[in-house]
Amino acid sequence: MEPKLNVAKDCFVENVETFADPETQAEKFNLYNGLANLVEGVQELKKAIYQIQQAGLVEGVAQLKKELANVRKAGLVEGVEEIKKELIKIRHELGHTRVSVREELNQLRVMLDKARRR
């Protein structure tokens, strides 16, 4: 997605430089210049959303690890279902792929298996 935004911005900037003289063609200049700035704004928003998602994921995983520690202490296997539900909830909220969630879930299962063996 990002390459398309870069191409769009480059095209708008090129149009400003090639076809839009601010003195004689102010309307074209404003249009192309505005579109280039709009693309830049979209890129900044995408970056901010990604940072928010990453922060949320880290927080969610930390919460799941705390829950796993509680499961270990209590020796309750039923807690695994709660962990799965939380992990799925985080995935939906943050829009992450099933692969990353599966990896996290597998790590949590391994940790739970170790806890059960103790």
Quick recap:
The protein is an all-alpha fold and 118 residues long.
Question: Any overview of this molecule?
Answer:
The protein has 118 residues and is an all-alpha fold. It has one domain (2-117). It is 87% helix and 0% strand. The chain has 4 helices and no strands. It has helices at residues 2-19, 26-74, 79-94, 98-117. Helix 2 runs parallel beside helix 4 and helix 3 packs antiparallel against helix 4 (98-117). The longest helix has 49 residues, at 26-74. The model has no long low-confidence stretch (mean pLDDT 76).
Question: What keywords describe this structure?
Answer:
single chain, 118 residues, mainly alpha, 0% strand, rod-shaped
Please write out the topology.
Blueprint: H1 2-19, H2 26-74, H3 79-94, H4 98-117
Helix pairs in contact: 1-2, 2-3, 2-4, 3-4
Structural class: mainly alpha
What number is the mean pLDDT?
76
The residue fraction in helices comes out at over 70%
Radius of gyration: 24 Å
Order of helices and strands: HHHH
Gap between N and C termini: 48 Å
Ranges where pLDDT stays below 50 over 5 or more residues in a row are: none
**Could you tell me the strand content as a percent range?**
under 5%
Shape descriptor: rod-shaped
The overall number of domains is: 1
Number of helices: 4
Number of strands: 0
Major sheet attributes: none
